[in-house]
Each structure stands twice: as C-alpha cells, then as structure tokens.
Design goal:
Layout lengths: L2 H25 L15 E2 L3 E2 L7 H20 L14 H20 L7 H4 L3 H14 L1 H4 L23 H10 L1 E5 L3 H8 L3 H11 L10 H13 L1 H4 L25 H10 L1 E5 L3 H4 L1 H15 L11
Antiparallel strand pairs: 1-2, 3-4
Helix pairs in contact: 1-2, 5-14, 7-14, 9-10, 9-12
Cofactor: heme c
Subcellular location: Cell inner membrane
Protein name: Cbb3-type cytochrome c oxidase subunit
C-alpha cells in the first residue's frame, strides 16, 4: 500500500471513530429547552413516553468502552493503512502456521507409504482410499471422477499408456508431468502430396488397425508414402508409437481427440499440444505416490485391491 493510500485509510478510520464519539456525546444528554417527557401526556406501559429520554449512563459508557477497545485493536493488529500493528500479525503468517501444523499431521498419515512402489501401495486398501481422495481433489478436474477422461484427457482405467504403463512410468507422469506435442503437418504434407495429402494420411492411418482395408485403397496407398516421409519418425513403421516421446499407438481403437475424420484431419493438419502438470511441488512425493497408486489400481485390478475404489 502506498503512503498516500495509507494516510487516506487512517484518516477515514480516525474520522469514523471521532464521529462515533461525538454522536454518543451529542445524543447522550438532555439540553436546555428540551420538553419534559411528561409534557405530552403520551405514556405507554407506564414509563414509555412520546419523547426520547437520554440513554442510561451505563449504556453510554459501554459505547465509550467499545470505542476504546476498537482503538486498541487497530493498534495491536494491522488496521491502520500500512501500519503493521504492534503484534506484527499477518493472515499469511497465521495461514502458513496452520498449514505447517496440518501438513505435519498429514505426513504422519502418509509416512508408511513413503518411497514405496505404487504397485505395492495399490495392494493396501487404506492407501488406495487415500489415493482416491487425493485424485478426486486434484486429478478429477481433467480425468473425471471415474478417471475415464474426456476428449484430450486420457482414460486412466484401461491398459493404454502413451508414456508407458510401468509403475515407474505412471509415477513419473504424476510427479514430473508430461508434455505431448504433435507438430502441424498440414503445410508440409500439402507441399509433398497436394491439397488432398492430409486426407490421404488419414486414410492410411485408419488402415493401421486393420491392414486388410489397405487392399485396393487408392487414398491409403498415397497416404502410406506420405506417412513414411513424415510420421514414421515418431509413430514408427508399424504405427505402434513411441512411449519415450508420448507418440500414441495408431493401431489400436483408442483416440485421445476422437476418431472422426474431422478430428484426425485437425490433428494432422494443425497439431496438438497436451500438457500433464507436474504434481511433485503441489502434492509432495508421497501424496503423488498415493494418487498414482490409485490410478494403477484402476487399470490393474487383479494386481491390487479394489475394495476401496468402488
């Protein structure tokens, strides 16, 4: 807060306090010339008259005590502009202390799972329950409460892993994050094969999961040459992909962005850029392991407990 704004806030506070003092003083006494309460003969309930009587002295004194308390409060805590207060209290420091205390309690809960492989953790029902809670609070926003994902967000309950599905691979994805980039190939392919080049590649990619459809398929035949010239570096000759690069397998029936011709055309022509955030700094390593163990349990039910995940 700048000095000018600080002075402004202090002035507003001071004016309000002085205004309250004056108002209590002004209304807390009778003045010469005020009519007596009995002058109108309007009396209710025995002692309630038409004119207001001054407040009782004890009541007025309570107001003054409240104002004194407010002044002390503003001096003790930071309530006067940029003035830090005698106690030097800040909400950030109190929040940090509360967080540290709660984190210490959490660490006691998570300590038994520190450093363990996620496939081992996944065999513990209590650990899976903790992992599910962590998943719902952090991962469900993208992957859904059932972990089945959405367009652009992978399904975590199947056996398809673009970056590898080993325990270490899954844990690395959670701890360090992933960044998958599909380059824009539209202009390159058009320069190589003409205006229909992207459609040719789409036709060929569709045959990778069913090679029999390659026979007498003119568009796929044209697309194969283009695929070998551009796509083979990441997806391989057989289209099986490369988990080291996050390049997906093109021979299965799973399509992260949809399997329509329009979606495939968009992917090839304009590229895709998918980011999985790194959770190490946010969750810490052990909580990340628990979340990863829960994910592992969903795709490996026979190798882990499922009693706490359904």
């Amino acid at each position: 807060m700048t000095t000018g704004w600080s002075i402004y806030v202090i002035a507003i506070v001071a004016i309000n306090i002085l205004g309250c003092v004056w108002l209590i003083w002004w209304t807390g006494k009778r003045r010469p010339g005020d009519p007596a309460p009995t002058d109108t003969s309007h009396v209710w309930d025995g002692n309630l008259t038409e004119y207001n009587k001054p407040m009782p002295r004890w009541w007025v004194n309570l107001f003054y005590i409240t104002i004194v308390f407010a002044i002390v409060y503003l001096v003790w805590y930071p309530g006067l502009g940029a003035f830090a207060g005698v106690a030097k209290w800040t909400s950030a420091r109190e929040q940090a202390a509360d967080k540290a205390r709660d984190d210490a309690k959490l660490e006691q809960t998570f300590a038994p799972y520190a450093g363990k492989s996620i496939d081992v953790i996944a065999r513990d029902p209590n650990a899976v329950a903790l992992g599910r809670s962590i998943f719902n609070n952090t991962c469900a926003t993208c992957h859904g409460s059932t972990a089945q994902g959405a367009v652009g967000y992978p399904n975590l309950t199947d056996q398809i892993w673009h970056w590898g599905g080993s325990p270490d691979d899954v844990l690395h994805s959670v701890l360090e994050g992933r960044e998958g980039v599909m380059p824009e190939w539209g202009k390159v392919l058009t320069g190589m094969g003409g205006d229909n080049a992207v459609d040719y590649v789409v036709a060929y990619v569709r045959t990778l999961s069913n090679p029999d459809t390659m026979q007498n398929n003119y568009m796929a035949a044209q697309g194969k040459a283009l695929y070998n010239g551009v796509c083979i570096a990441c997806h391989g000759v057989d289209g099986k992909g490369n988990t080291a690069m996050g390049a997906p397998d093109l021979t299965d029936d799973y399509w992260l962005y949809g399997n329509s011709s329009e979606s495939l055309r968009h992917t090839i022509e304009n590229g895709r850029h998918g980011v999985m955030p790194a959770w190490r700094n946010t969750l810490g390593e052990t909580r990340s392991r628990l979340a990863a163990a829960y994910v592992w349990s969903l795709s490996h039910p026979t190798q882990s407990t499922v009693t706490a995940t359904r």
